[in-house]
């Protein structure tokens, strides 16, 4: 889409550090925080426009800390949240805008499995009903904003959402002659391709490394990384973190060798659950009923703590407490416990009764990507 003005801001930050950028943005640099496009941020985040995501809280870490940051209106002054349902994230919004569902607008869906499958397919979502109430597709919302800014024509180029879908689809047709025309695609709603050859990682490179180099600095598979060696010398890391140019064993924070294990002896994880996609669909009572949120613990650890299946238990560490129902099972090895990821945080008197695993996860980012390093959590568990 052509725009009359170029965005002068080239700065970008790792997604996980958005909370840091709210309260200490001006301190964040390329070498200490992985900021790109500038050496140092010039401004803290004052406005958030969050669409189709429950990431403000649920997918973050140390949710009590996130709550403190987002609740302080002297920090981020305005939050707009767009979704099809109420979520823990939009509890913090100044404005909640109702998005149209997939049944209320036309759009394409390419299932994530399609990228890896040897039987790829594309789905066209046909609009079944007009948006209910005041709901609007995000494109319509953007047009309304563009109108008020006096740039509606420049933004939309006179195209509706369907026009843009047709344009993008026809661009794809140029690359893939197997695609039917747009109207046929809309009518069918689903196009499956004949089985294709399974994807083999780095196949072109392996067959012809000269003409198909990798995107690494050397164009090769790098056992020793000069780029990481440079980062090792220049980046400013948090205490206990390291960057090394070759693979080494590293004793991770809250890992098996962390001295904190004496206080919190159980390793705790969140796993993907059949009852939802990340945190989507948690709001549906029927799904929660058939897929209950349980905390699985091994019989040996359960017996030592007087815990039986069905007991209400608390999982705690220095960062938070979650409360939920125990399931005693040998499917989990001794010394570990798990709960499904994606349940919605719900705090009562400082305790997360929603059993969100991220209430216990550290907000400290990983060394290189500055991402969410929350798959290792040390905890203690007790019966309530």
Topology:
Layout: H1 18-24, H2 30-33, E1 47-51, H3 63-71, E2 78-83, E3 95-98, E4 107-109, H4 113-116, E5 121-125, H5 138-149, H6 152-156, H7 161-175, H8 182-188, E6 190-192, H9 203-207, H10 226-234, E7 266-271, H11 285-290, E8 294-297, H12 299-304, E9 312-317, E10 320-328, E11 336-340, E12 347-348, E13 351-352, E14 377-383
Parallel strand pairs: 1-2, 2-3, 7-11, 8-10
Antiparallel strand pairs: 4-5, 5-6, 7-14, 8-11, 9-10, 9-14, 12-13
Task: Provide structural commentary.
This protein is an alpha/beta fold. 23% of the residues lie in helices and 17% in strands. It has 12 helices and 14 strands. The chain has helices spanning 18-24, 30-33, 63-71, 113-116, 138-149, 152-156, 161-175, 182-188, 203-207, 226-234, 285-290, 299-304; strands spanning 47-51, 78-83, 95-98, 107-109, 121-125, 190-192, 266-271, 294-297, 312-317, 320-328, 336-340, 347-348, 351-352, 377-383. A 6-stranded mixed barrel has the order 7-11-8-10-9-14. It has a 3-stranded parallel sheet with strand order 1-2-3, with no helix packed on it. Strands 4-5-6 form a 3-stranded antiparallel sheet. It is globular, with a radius of gyration of 24 Å.
């Amino acid at each position: 889409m052509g725009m009359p003005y170029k965005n002068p801001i080239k700065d970008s930050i790792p997604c996980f550090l958005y909370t840091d950028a709210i309260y200490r943005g001006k301190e964040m640099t390329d070498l200490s925080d992985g900021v790109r496009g500038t050496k140092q941020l010039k401004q803290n985040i004052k406005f958030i426009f969050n669409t189709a995501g429950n990431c403000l809280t649920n997918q973050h870490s140390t949710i009590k800390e996130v709550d403190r940051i987002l609740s302080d209106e002297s920090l981020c002054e305005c939050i707009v949240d767009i979704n099809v349902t109420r979520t823990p994230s939009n509890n913090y919004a100044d404005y909640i805008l109702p998005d149209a569902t997939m049944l209320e607008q036309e759009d394409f869906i390419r299932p994530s499995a399609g990228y890896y499958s040897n039987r790829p397919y594309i789905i066209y979502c046909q609009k079944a009903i007009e948006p209910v109430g005041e709901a609007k597709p995000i494109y319509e919302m953007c047009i309304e904003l563009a109108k008020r800014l006096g740039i509606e024509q420049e933004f939309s180029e006179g195209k509706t959402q369907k026009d843009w879908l047709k344009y993008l689809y026809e661009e794809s047709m140029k690359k893939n002659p197997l695609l039917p025309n747009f109207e046929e695609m809309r009518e069918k709603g689903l196009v499956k391709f004949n089985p294709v050859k399974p994807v083999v990682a780095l196949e072109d490179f392996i067959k012809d490394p000269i003409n198909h180099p990798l995107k690494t600095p050397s164009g090769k598979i790098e056992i020793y990384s000069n780029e990481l060696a440079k980062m090792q010398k220049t980046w400013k890391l948090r205490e206990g973190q390291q960057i090394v140019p070759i693979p080494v064993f590293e004793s991770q924070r809250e890992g098996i060798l962390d001295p904190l294990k004496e206080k919190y002896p159980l390793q705790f994880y969140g796993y993907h659950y059949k009852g939802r996609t990340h945190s989507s669909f948690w709001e549906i009572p029927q799904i929660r009923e058939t897929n209950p949120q349980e905390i699985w613990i091994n019989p040996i650890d359960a017996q030592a703590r007087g815990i039986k299946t069905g007991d209400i238990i608390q999982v705690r560490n220095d960062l938070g407490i979650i409360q939920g129902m125990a399931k005693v099972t040998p499917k989990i090895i001794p010394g570990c416990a798990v709960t499904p990821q994606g349940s919605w945080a719900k705090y009562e008197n400082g305790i997360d009764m929603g059993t969100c695993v991220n209430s216990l996860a550290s907000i400290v980012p990983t060394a290189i990507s500055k991402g969410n390093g929350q798959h290792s959590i040390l905890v203690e568990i007790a019966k309530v």
